[in-house]
Design brief:
With 213 residues, this protein is of the alpha+beta class. It has six helices and nine strands.
């Protein structure tokens, strides 16, 4: 399962800005199977994206940009696609989002879960695990806040370009991309009226690393 070797990093090809400046539903599905990479002074961590959710404000009652209201919290959503929108939940946890579309169209994709593939020991240390058992590997990044903790993603990266050398999304050259995508309603948005039933959560079928089956 682990691809932890130097050749893995050398085969990654960073996604161009044009990837993000498209329809958010299309970007959401296309993010599946890509790799989120974060390079820090501690080391490099990377995970394969296996679960995402699309948020398409201002008409999406579940989106932070609903009704087109721009705030200090969501201002990154109004910028041109290809940057990180990071928000805090429960006072200490973070969620990582990919801003999409052109400037002024406040839409984003929440990355909900990763398959950890590089820097697993560093991820485990950040998550507070004493050992890297098979059970713990599945728990490293199977949730939006878990993956942020494992990948050392916090508000200091708010608005960061995903074309940077430290935080980016890439595809693995030559990798087989033949997998089935499942769509379901999004999670934990019961407040969002009819939007809670939109099937804008997308995941790789059969992945054991998703946040919820």
């Amino acid at each position: 399962m682990s691809k932890e070797n130097k050749s893995f990093l050398s085969k990654l090809e960073k996604l161009p800005r044009s990837f993000y400046l498209r329809d958010t539903i299309i970007v959401s599905k296309d993010l599946l199977g890509k790799y989120l990479v974060h390079k820090t002074s501690e080391g490099v961590t990377a995970g394969r994206i296996v679960e995402v959710e699309a948020y398409i404000g201002p008409e999406d009652k579940a989106a932070h940009s609903y009704n087109g209201k721009k705030t200090e919290r969501n201002r990154a959503m109004f910028e041109s696609g290809g940057i990180a929108y990071i928000f805090q939940v429960y006072g200490k946890n973070f969620c990582f989002n990919v801003v999409t579309q052109r400037e002024g169209m406040p839409e984003a994709v929440l990355v909900r879960a990763l398959e950890p593939v590089f820097g697993l020991e560093l991820m485990a240390k950040r998550r507070g695990f004493d050992e890297l058992s098979n059970k713990n590997i599945k728990l490293l990044t199977n949730g939006p806040s878990k993956l942020c903790q494992a990948m050392a993603i916090d508000k200091s990266l708010y608005g960061k370009s995903l074309l940077s050398n430290n935080l980016f999304i890439a595809e693995l050259k030559g990798e087989d991309k033949d997998f089935k995508i499942i769509s379901t309603p999004r999670i934990n948005i019961d407040y969002a009226g009819e939007a809670k039933d939109y099937r804008w959560r997308f995941l790789i079928s059969g992945s054991k690393f998703v946040s919820r089956k």
